[in-house]
Amino acid sequence: MSDSDSFGLQLAKYTNVAALAILIYDYFVTLHSEVRWTCGRKWGIVRTTFTVSRYVPFAGAVMTLYSGLKTWGTQNCMPFNDADSGIHFLGIVASEGLLIARIYGFSGNNNTCLIVLLSFSSVILVMAVILSVAPMNLDIPKEGARSSALPYGLLLFFEIVLMSTTAFLRYRHYLGSHSTLMRSIYRDGLLYMFCIMMVSAANVLVIAVLPTSFSDMLTTPQIVVHSVLASRILFSLPVKKVPVFPTYQSTPSTEMLSRPHELDAMSGGAPGYAMVSAADFSQQDFDYIIMGGGTTGLALASILSTNTSVRVGVIEAGLRKDDEMILVPGMVGKAVGNPEYDWNFVTKPQPFAQNRKMPIPRGKVLGGSSALNYMAYCRGSELELGIKGWNWNTISDAIKSAEAWSPPTRHAKAHNADNVAKNHGRYGYVKTTAYSYYYDLVLPFFETMNKLGVVTNQSEASGDVIGIWTYIASIDPQINTRCYSTNAYYDRVSNRPNIVVLTGAQASKVIFRQTSSSDLQATVVEYHKEGRTYKVPVRREVIISTGALQTPQLLELSGIGNPDLLRRLNIPVKIDLPGVGENLQDHLRVSMGAELKGSHETTDDLNSETFAQQRLEQYRLSRTGMLSSTLSTLVLIPSSSFIPPDKMQSILSTLDEALKLPQIQNSPWKKWYDVQRAWLENDGIAQLEVILYPSYTHAGCTNEKAKHYTISVFLQHAWSRGHVHATSTSVLDSPEIDLAILDSLGNIGVWDKQPEEWCAGRQHLPNPLGNSSTSHALWPRKSFETGEKAKL
Predict the structure, then answer these.
(1) pLDDT of residue 132
(2) Radius of gyration of the chain (CA)
(3) What is the distance between the alpha carbons of residues 156 and 12, in angstroms, rounded to a whole number?
(4) Distance between CA atoms of 591 and 755, rounded to whole angstroms?
(5) Euclidean distance between CA atoms 36 and 681, whole angstroms
(6) Cα 602 vs. chain centroid, distance in angstroms?
(7) How far apart are CA 621 and CA 244, in angstroms?
């Protein structure tokens, strides 16, 4: 054996030993994820492919090392080498399968894309096998080692195609994406694929050009690189140590599904996000200060920060809460009532609703109520938006510019999901799509509503909301998690030095100075944290973005509002504006429940600890199943759909007489009443909204294993007018909230009882939904609730 051959074999031995060491080290680094993906899933194509790609390399690496050692000792290992090559090729093929699965997911589970990739890969595989078994007579020596350069060359070509496909999908679907997670998946995916390609190319050159003694030098490194990087591309296995998802084996189901679990890997974490102290915040200079880091506040702050010449400060009373109670769609509602997430506002006692105090949930976290709501991404009715500068075209264009819509899956389309691309934006900030999971009551509900004369609406995003439809949700389709103001807007800009967010601090008022022209200029914002009061100066503007219930309170604490109210609270009047806090309206709701017959899957199943644990683990592992979705179906109907003509005429006559009363004619809301009256006879404007909830356990239910559904009916345009006002000089005291439910001038609020009338008239629904429930199916709950409790 020549010195050159000895050196080649020795070098190959060392590289293979090093590659095997890397593979073993990587296995222990990702041990938790390895166990999840090999032991925590049902057997299927993905699990099988992953298992082969991760464990076959161990056998291949050991065999290559053994072959190198024996060959260096001049022993004939040709049969052993053939088996070794086969194992290497199997491991690499499995890794390529993971790359195909990753591209399939990146394409939005496009079946055509999958078929094309599988067909192309089959052709490449067949050609590679043919070239391996019967090498062609080329101008290179016909040694087995030399001939293996040909199939590896085909493999390199295939990887170039996969990388090009990924780049195309980025251009086609995600070019305008502002999601940090999506950018990370794309960037890391290309980086990993580039590394895989470079190792493959190097191996081809080594086999084809260098002496045959070097031919095994990169064999084990190649399979190790494929195994390590391909698995990371598909499953986002952590390169660095990050928190993993904890598992609770004996936690009661109700507690288990309401516990916060960190999902940094799922949500993309909080890049660049760092807490600043209240004292540090007060020492900084800002051009803009936004009071409230909620749904709109964070969006506005993020957009303002694109101008690098300005500095933006945000003051948010809540904390950042990237956990399952926010991010997991099926856990919607779990955070409601929890003071760490919810302001827990309630109304004053409502005399016409049995003196009850109505709860009105509001998000007390970074991201506001966009972190708590039901994620419906809806536009509203074109006919209701006719004000100059606030019309349908203006609103629709703004919504599209904010939206990053992904087409629905085939399963979602079978459940009537909106697939009209022209009605959606593709390159905005908020990820939207239809849910991938639907309860088995959804299609029967569609058919039942159709029998009641309600048409199926295939695209409410067109501006026509009448009918029954499947709504688009603000979720990231790649990872099936909530997309809300924090991860849609703020995470995109959090690394910028010109935006600072202070959490856990409550803004209390705006302080003004009088200019030479006797105008008022906002110059200071006051806020509280941990019992201390701070002040921070502002150069340009203060934006109050604390929602419908707290913005009036902050205005009044700052001296802007009704002078009589401000004087009663000993607040100096800065601006006389009596409309502050007035004209408060909400969607009244009446619900009715039914006990189901037969076999159905509803959220009642989550009352079982075992079932709840299984569904939670399913979601954590694959982002599928019941917890990947929530309610999905809405019905909006005009008055003519549920009120007979003669009864409607009687209601309108009574209403018209009431509208002539002096207190109505002199009301500041007179013009609005006139618009609302005209809408009652417009079949393009919805007056009621009906929602199916696949759950409810009513007080009269004695069957512990019973399944239920609930139908809630919401009033769309209440005639009642309430108010919200500050109750003291302290922002820490909740405002007074009065919805004035069923209380209106001149009894014009007679219309507000229509949700209860609808329920009373439909105690037995037609089939198929009616046939799925017990004979005493529906029962109206004889009291109103606010729609905010259900929908936020």
Answers:
(1) 65
(2) 32
(3) 21
(4) 9
(5) 58
(6) 21
(7) 12
Q: Which two tokens stand for residue 283?
A: 């020492």
Residues 6+ apart with CB under 8 A from 772: 441, 444, 596, 597, 598, 600
DSSP 186-233: HHHHHHHHHHHHHHHHHHHHHHHHS-GGGTTTTHHHHHHHHHHHHHHH
Report d(CA 509, CA 504) in Å as an integer: 16
The C-alpha atoms of residue 422 and residue 415 are separated, in whole angstroms, by 20
Choose among 762, 469, 454, 461: nearest CA to 637: 454
pLDDT score at 223: 72
The whole-number pLDDT of residue 790 equals 45
Q: What pLDDT does 101 receive? A: 76
Q: How far apart are CA 425 and CA 321, in angstroms?
A: 28
Question: In whole angstroms, how far apart are CA 711 and each of 644, 694, 769, 779?
Answer: 22, 9, 11, 10
Rounded to 5°, the CA angle 372-186-228 comes to: 110
Low-confidence residues of the chain: pLDDT under 70: 1-10, 12-13, 30-44, 46-47, 60-61, 63-89, 105-110, 132-148, 169-189, 212-216, 219, 229-275, 697-704, 747, 749-750, 760-763, 774-792
Q: How far apart are CA 330 and CA 615, in angstroms?
A: 10
Reduced to 3 states (helix: H, G, I; strand: E, B; else coil), residue 323 is: strand
Task: Give the pLDDT score at 704.
Answer: 65
Instruction: Decide if 628 contacts 332 (C-beta within 8 A).
Output: no
